[in-house]
């Protein structure tokens, strides 16, 4: 009899254990499901942060301005310390680069046709090479120069980087374009259109440019408004820096007029560029 009672106790305990295990199985499955869902959620959050960070987590060393001029031309401008500017070669639309900045000068196929030099080094190839950024092709054209040693800007009309007047050839950048001649309302057209051959000055095109103010800051400017060169110049001169810009240049326009900022992106027609201006 005692043996039978002991066996009954064993069976009773086994039944309880079996029942507990059966109850725990759904709990384990639930925990496994929760764990998998948590992993997926973390993965999605990481992807979202990477996407968000590509736009917002890059250090922003600029001021952003969005203004509409009295003539209706809308301007987007990034204002930066010239020591943070770097001219670079490119082979994609600006929007594909994880940088803040804008398009550079003129180009054709793979050749950079506007002067684009950092510290006497063209953005691609070697000094003196065709399409390297050493020359303003065909014409002497307005080139915006930052002389780091002197701490000053100028616009110089040159054909090649070797003609630039700078204090220290290891401390400057020079971006070629076409002269805006902001102080000279009477003479700007003769310089830009007749002497320097600005493309399509009287057609309504997307446009871009560079200018500097009396405080020594560089303005990177792009408009999504299709306008003439004169309308763009008027908007730039009258609207930015409270009308206090010193001088500037036109850069490439139409589909090449592209800008990257945390606040906005202007893609032009998303064409591949060959040279860009980057705020480091």
Written description of the protein model:
With 280 residues, the protein is of the alpha+beta class. The chain contains three helices and 18 strands. The chain has helices at residues 2-56, 188-195, 229-239; strands at 63-68, 74-80, 85-89, 100-103, 107-108, 111-112, 116-118, 121-122, 141-147, 152-158, 172-176, 178-179, 205-213, 218-227, 245-250, 259-260, 265-266, 275-279. Strands 1-2-14-13-15-12 form a six-stranded antiparallel sheet. A five-stranded antiparallel sheet has the order 3-18-4-16-17, with no helix packed on it. It is elongated.
Strand proportion, as a percent range, falls in 25-35%
Overall 3D form: elongated
Euclidean distance between termini CA atoms: 91 Å
SSE run: HEEEEEEEEEEEEHEEHEEEE
Mean pLDDT: 90
Task: Work out the number of β strands.
Answer: 18
How are the strands of the biggest sheet laid out side by side?
A: 1-2-14-13-15-12
- Category from helices, strands and their pairing: alpha+beta
Low-confidence regions: 1-7
The residue fraction in helices comes out at 25-40%
Radius of gyration, taken over Cα atoms and rounded to an integer in Å: 31 Å
- Largest sheet at a glance? 6 strands, antiparallel
Annotation field: number of helices: 3
């Amino acid at each position: 009899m005692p043996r039978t009672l002991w066996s009954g106790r064993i069976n009773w305990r086994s039944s309880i254990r079996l029942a507990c295990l059966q109850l725990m199985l759904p709990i384990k499955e639930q925990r496994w499901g929760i764990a998998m869902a948590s992993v997926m959620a973390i993965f999605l959050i990481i992807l979202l942060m990477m996407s968000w960070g590509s736009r917002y987590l890059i250090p922003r060393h600029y001021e952003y301005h969005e203004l509409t001029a009295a003539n209706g031309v809308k301007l987007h401008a990034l204002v930066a310390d010239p020591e943070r500017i770097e001219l670079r070669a490119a082979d994609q639309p600006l929007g594909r680069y994880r940088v803040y900045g804008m398009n550079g000068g003129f180009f054709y196929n793979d050749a950079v046709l506007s002067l684009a030099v950092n510290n006497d080094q063209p953005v691609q190839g070697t000094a003196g090479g065709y399409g390297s950024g050493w020359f303003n092709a065909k014409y002497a054209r307005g080139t915006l120069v930052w002389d780091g040693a002197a701490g000053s800007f100028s616009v110089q009309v040159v054909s090649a980087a070797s003609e630039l007047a700078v204090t220290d050839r290891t401390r400057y950048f020079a971006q070629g374009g076409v002269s805006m001649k902001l102080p000279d309302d009477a003479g700007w057209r003769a310089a830009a259109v007749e002497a320097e051959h600005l493309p399509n000055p009287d057609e309504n095109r997307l446009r871009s440019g560079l200018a500097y103010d009396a405080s020594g800051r560089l303005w990177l400017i792009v408009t999504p408004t299709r306008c003439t060169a004169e309308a763009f110049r008027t908007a730039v001169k009258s609207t930015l820096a409270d009308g206090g810009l010193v001088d500037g240049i036109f850069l490439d326009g139409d589909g090449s007029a592209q800008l990257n900022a945390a606040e906005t992106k202007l893609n032009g027609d998303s064409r591949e560029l060959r040279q860009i201006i980057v705020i480091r």
